[in-house]
Design a protein that fits this description.
The chain is of the alpha+beta class. Helices cover 38% and strands 27% of the residues. The N and C termini lie far apart (72 Å).
C-alpha cells in the first residue's frame, strides 16, 4: 500500500512533464479545432519525404491542414494571443507577417531543444486554407545554416540558380 502512494506523485509529475514537452503542432490543432469547431487532416504521403530529409539535419516534420477554413480577420489577433498563451513560454514568436488587404498572416514560433531548434509555422491563407507545420533542426544543421546561409543553400545543386546573388 505504501509503495502505491509513492507511485502516484511520480506518475503525476511524469505525466505533467510529458504533456508540457509535447506542445507545438498538437496544441495549435487542439486550440483551432476547439475554438472554431473545425477538423484538421494530415497531408497524405508526407512520410514519402522522410528519405529526402536524411542527412539534412531536419527531422520530425509534421503538418496539419484545415481545408476550407479561414480565420476571420477580426479574430486573427485574438487567436494569435490564444496560441501564444497555449504554447507556453518555451515557444517564442520569431517572425510575424500580416496582410491587412488579403487577410493572410503567418507566425513562425521557435523553441530551443537539447538537440537544436524546433520551428512551428502557423499560416492562414486567403484561399480558405489554414496550415500548421512543425519541423526540428539539429544543432549542426542550424549552425551551418546560421553561419554560412549562402553556402548552405548552394550545397544543393541549382538551389539558387534563379537568384543573382553578390556576396561582399
Amino acid at each position: 500500500m505504501n509503495r502505491a502512494l509513492w507511485l502516484l506523485p511520480i506518475t503525476l509529475v511524469t505525466a505533467c512533464v510529458l504533456a508540457n514537452a509535447d506542445t507545438g503542432i498538437k496544441t495549435v490543432v487542439k486550440v483551432v479545432e476547439t475554438r472554431y469547431a473545425v477538423r484538421h487532416h494530415g497531408i497524405p504521403g508526407l512520410w514519402l519525404a522522410r528519405p529526402f530529409l536524411t542527412g539534412s539535419g531536419i527531422g520530425g516534420l509534421r503538418m496539419a491542414e484545415f481545408a476550407k477554413f479561414h480565420v476571420p480577420p477580426q479574430d486573427s489577433y485574438s487567436l494569435k494571443e490564444n496560441l501564444a498563451h497555449s504554447l507556453g513560454p518555451e515557444w517564442q514568436s520569431f517572425v510575424e507577417v500580416w496582410s491587412k488587404n488579403d487577410g493572410e498572416w503567418t507566425v513562425i514560433y521557435t523553441r530551443a531543444t537539447n538537440e537544436g531548434l524546433s520551428l512551428l509555422i502557423v499560416e492562414s491563407e486567403r484561399d480558405d486554407t489554414f496550415t500548421v507545420v512543425q519541423v526540428n533542426l539539429n544543432g549542426k544543421a542550424l549552425r551551418q545554416w546560421v553561419d554560412e546561409p549562402i553556402k548552405s543553400a548552394r550545397h544543393e545543386p541549382d538551389a539558387l540558380a534563379h537568384i543573382d546573388m553578390h556576396v561582399q
